[in-house]
Amino acid sequence: MSEKRKCLACDNELFGRIDKKFCSDYCRTHHYNKNNLSNRSYMREVNSILKKNLKILEGLNPQGKTTVSEKKLLENGFRLNYFTNLYTTKKGITYFFCYDQGFIKLANGSYTIFKKTDFE
Ligand SMILES: [Zn+2]
Hints:
Elements: H1 25-60, E1 65-68, H2 70-75, E2 85-88, E3 94-98, E4 101-105, E5 111-115
Antiparallel strand pairs: 1-5, 2-3, 3-4, 4-5
This protein binds zinc ion.
Residues 7, 9-10, 12, 22-24, 27 line the site of zinc ion.
């Protein structure tokens, strides 16, 4: 039980209460502000990727349903790992959604894009 406890913000050794995490109020404030800032910028980044994905799908899919190659999606800057929700049918087919635009990967590697019209 002789392990030294260190301030989470500045690595100074901590004395006193066992549940202490910071050496000072300054360090506590600094630490939490930094975390909040990086969380917010991460959220902003994800939001902007999702919005961009939506714009790409809408741009490629003006008629409400179309099929495009993966290459074309990627050339437009589409990020396949970013979507808002998933829907898996009883047959085990998974539809991906970016807001109201759905997309599904076909056996040949292309994607069908479809606009979701009925929101349950
Ligand atoms: Zn400190």
